[in-house]
Amino acid sequence: MAEENIKEQSLSEKVKDITSLHTSPFPKEGIALITKAYAFAENAHKDHKRYSGEPYIVHLHETAKNLARLGMGARTISAGLLHDVIEDTAVSEAEIRNEFGDEILGLIEGVTKLGTLKYRGLKRHTESLRKLFVAMSKDLRVLIIKLADRLHNMQTLVHVPQHKQRRIAEETLEIFAPIAYRLGMRALNRELEDLAFPYVYPKEHADIKKLLKQKSKETEVHLEKNLRSLRKALAKEGVRNTHISYRVKGLYSTYKKWLRKNKDIDQVFDISAIRIVVPTVHDCYHVLGIIHGLWRPMPGRIKDYIAFPKPNGYKSLHTTIFTGDGSIIEVQIRTEEMDRDAEYGIASHFIYKEGESGNETSNFVRLMQLLSYRTWFSKDSGTSKATSAQQPGVATPLWVQQLAEAQADITEPQEFLDNLRADFFQHRVFVFTPAGDVVDLPVDSSSIDFAYAIHSDIGNHISGAKVNGKLVSLDTKLHNGDVVEIQTKQSSKPSSKWIDFCKTGVAKRKIQSALQMQEQKE
Ligand code: MN
To answer: Hey, how many other C-beta atoms are within 10 angstroms of the C-beta on 19?
Structure first.
């Protein structure tokens, strides 16, 4: 169907199909840039087809539409149209630089580089791989393009050969959906999870779908009546300009919650929720009071994510109520800004900003604040335990604050950006095992740190190390992207010198206890 549409349309109609999804009209130069990128991509990929048999441009067209829907600017959308040219066509980097400039080339190269990382199904290294995706992206727009690309790939996964489907779906579930979640992009997170779910867990998917079907029938019967009394109460209390909607939880997140609740679907209270969007924060608390006056709240289920936002920046009031007719409903109350942030997250901060000179800098600071160092580098960042909700708003890391303050002294936004990025990414290096698994280590780590990160038995018997195929001394510092191979010998033992070559506490501790053991033996 998409193919038919695209064939019949003129170039300007195709571009309009994309740009009309954006919430604000594009300036003329923006439209011109997207049109140029469209024509360029269509020509470069003219001989390519997707697994579905559709012309390749359909994929690029849909990726660009996803980016426009997220509110991204003309340069990001253009890079989205061009994201596969380097990898899949004969077009050179120089040609792209000539036609579209360094910024767009940088975005395309970033997406191409990310394409080389693959999830190989080793859960132990999943967290490192997620971090690596982010570290390698540098410019967060690269990550957003990659997510928009992945969304369309998942929507068309049915056409991909079966033996590849599962790996792609697992990668989506383990890497891309969690990244979308941590960037606060809940709508995208939900879509990616629900598209991948049936490929990774076919039976569970069918079970949950059936359970939900029964459950939602029960709820909907009462819902209209409850919404009517809610509207009446809000009007009576003088709360105006509210927008009330009804949302159903994603299948995959319902499945995960159902598992946590010992497979009792009646214990999953937020399958369906009423969402109330109001003009101000004051209105949020006012509406919460009105609702608790109308229905009895369930104890322990009132959550103030406005005073205590989640680590990914999510803000809202939540309460769960007994409606009196036997149903239990979750209610979410938030302002329009919080609602936009909750659905689009990081992306919503790019809206309207791209293209206004100098603004990228303040954007980037905002993004870094939102991301928060802790979201990525704390040990428990992979889990969404209640602790995150109970803790007060995540503090902006000191270095981000300092850099934001120092911004006034720096005349060149580019210089500032470079400093900020360097600082953000200088904390960790990401290296590979010969099998391609990712291990992340503190900067200045050596092969010894690497060996102990894999297994203490390997650490305790290092006889040599190869980095990128070459033998190196054990104190050699590792760099991003290095492939490290540890050679072991049963007779090799740690020496006290090694402690000086290490950066990680794990390695130092293990070496020390191995040395003590040796002493005792002697
Ligand atoms: Mn693609």
So the answer is: 20
Q: Who contacts 55 (Cβ-Cβ below 8 Å, separation ≥6)?
A: 3, 6, 45, 46, 48, 49
- How far lies 309's CA from each of 272, 312, 377, 394, in Å? 22, 8, 18, 7
Measure 117 CA to ligand 1 centroid, in angstroms. Answer: 14
Q: Is 86 strand, coil or helix?
A: helix
The closest alpha carbon to 148, from 214, 78, 247, belongs to 78
**60: Cβ contacts below 8 Å, ≥ 6 apart:** 41, 45, 80, 81, 82, 83, 84
Ligand 1 centroid to residue 132 C-alpha, Å: 19
- Whether residue 79 contacts residue 104, with contact meaning beta carbons closer than 8 Å, is answered with yes
Q: Catalytic amino acids?
A: 87-88
Contact 431, 438 (CB under 8 A): yes
202-342 homologous superfamily: Beta Polymerase, domain 2 (3.30.460.10)
Task: Give the Å distance between the CA of 77 and the centre of ligand 1.
Answer: 13
Is domain 427-521 annotated with CATH 3.10.20.30? yes
User: For residue 349, what is the DSSP state?
Assistant: G
DSSP state of 428: E
Confidence (pTM): 0.70
Domain segments of the chain: what residues?
Answer: 3-197, 202-342, 427-521
Please count the other Cβ atoms lying within 10 Å of the Cβ belonging to residue 148.
Answer: 27
59 alpha carbon – ligand 1 mean position (Å): 7
Quote the distance between the C-alpha of residue 381 and its chain's center.
Answer: 13
Distance CA 184, CA 313 (A): 7
Alpha carbon of 21 to ligand 1 centroid (Å):
20
How far lies 348's CA from each of 70, 262, 282, 360, 417, in Å? 7, 36, 23, 13, 20
DSSP annotation of 394 reads P
Encode the chain (522 residues) as per-residue pLDDT tens digits.
455 566 678 999 999 999 998 877 888 899 999 999 999 999 999 999 999 999 999 999 999 999 998 888 899 999 999 999 998 898 999 999 999 999 899 999 989 888 777 766 566 667 667 766 666 666 778 888 999 999 999 999 999 999 899 989 998 998 889 888 877 788 899 999 999 999 999 999 999 999 888 777 777 777 788 888 899 999 999 888 899 988 778 899 889 988 988 888 778 877 778 999 999 999 999 999 999 999 999 988 899 999 988 766 789 999 999 888 777 889 999 999 888 888 877 666 554 344 443 344 444 444 444 444 334 433 333 333 323 322 333 333 343 344 344 433 434 444 544 544 444 455 677 788 887 777 878 888 999 999 998 899 999 999 999 998 899 999 999 987 788 999 999 999 999 999 999 988 889 999 999 999 888 887
Q: Which two tokens stand for residue 257?
A: 């919650």
* Distance of CA 84 from the midpoint of ligand 1 (Å): 6
User: What CATH architecture does domain 3-197 belong to?
Assistant: Orthogonal Bundle (1.10)
